[in-house]
Amino acid sequence: MTTPAAHHIPGRPCSIAAALQVLGEKWALLAVRELFYGNHRFDRIVRNTGAPRDRLTARLRALEEAGVVERRPYSERPLRYEYHLTEAGRDLAPLTQSLLAWGDRWLLPDPPVTLLHRPADDQDQPVHPLDAAWTCRTCGQEVHNGDVSLDIHSPGWDREGPVPDQDSATSPS
What we know:
Shape: globular
Helix content: 25-40%
Order of helices and strands: HHHHEEHHEEEEEEH
CATH class of the largest domain: Mainly Alpha
Radius of gyration: 21 Å
CATH superfamily of the largest domain: Winged helix-like DNA-binding domain superfamily/Winged helix DNA-binding domain
Strand order of the largest sheet: 1-2
Distance between the termini: 43 Å
Largest sheet: 2 strands, antiparallel
Number of domains: 2
Structural class: alpha+beta
CATH architecture of the largest domain: Orthogonal Bundle
CATH topology of the largest domain: Arc Repressor Mutant, subunit A
Number of helices: 7
């Protein structure tokens, strides 16, 4: 899925820039966090994020338009909705886990939340802290920054930036 806004981003064509068009404001990511935590109603999301109501309304509307969240009615009279993550929203789990791990390491000496993993195949096994890491889907190995290279698909761009137009580079001025 692409959004129209993704086609009008200045600079390098980039999925990070396109994602930030949707998620780059703190209230958007904090709303997603609350949905991951199981808080689906607007009042709880407002309370737990500290977001101004009008700002949160705008962010949730933008997340809905981008296909990250969906509204579901929970009351007929009065008609009221709660918010749920779509498949695209649930795919943000590694991002939120990475931000949490980074904040734990670099910003908060005593983290207020720990993500725990309970293996699905053995509910009697104790839970343990979840550590966010990159893992290669092909070979299963953990990946580190030095192990990553780029495969640039954007015409006219390389790792360093825009490639000079070959016609204008060879034409006399």
